[in-house]
Write a structure and sequence with these properties.
Elements (H helix, E strand, L loop, with lengths): L1 H20 L3 E3 L2 H29 L3 H4 L3 H19 L3 E3 L2 H22 L1
Antiparallel strand pairs: 1-2
Helix pairs in contact: 1-2, 1-5, 2-4, 4-5
């Protein structure tokens, strides 16, 4: 539980920082970033397995069998960020590409945090 909460806070900080650097991402403040990070975390927990399965089937498992399953996971995470955009009025991404970049940044930082702390 502590690990998940720490990830939410770190993801919120990364989202806020990325929103400051990316012109096509808008985020109102840290409170909004926490809410968006929480939405992303919950949606990821609830939907990532389903979206991953659908994309693996749609691509005939090519990425999975080539050892490139992380590409599917990044795309799924970007789709979840797009859903969070629709659910929160304080968070806006213009197009899919900024969501994809956010997904990549969050995945890299999350991996680094996991390697260092857990």
């Amino acid at each position: 539980m502590i690990q998940w909460l720490l990830h939410i806070v770190i993801d919120a900080a990364i989202l806020l920082l990325a929103a400051k650097m990316m012109s096509k991402v808008e985020l109102k403040g840290f409170k909004s970033a926490l809410i968006v990070a929480l939405i992303i975390g919950v949606l990821s927990f609830l939907l990532s397995w389903l979206l991953t399965a659908v994309l693996n089937i749609a691509t005939l498992g090519i990425f999975y069998f080539l050892g490139l399953g992380f590409i599917i996971r990044i795309i799924v995470y970007a789709l979840i960020i797009e859903l969070a955009d629709r659910l929160s009025s304080d968070f806006k991404t213009v197009g899919f590409l900024p969501s994809l970049w956010l997904a990549i940044i969050l995945a890299i930082v999350g991996g680094i945090v996991d390697a260092i702390l857990f």
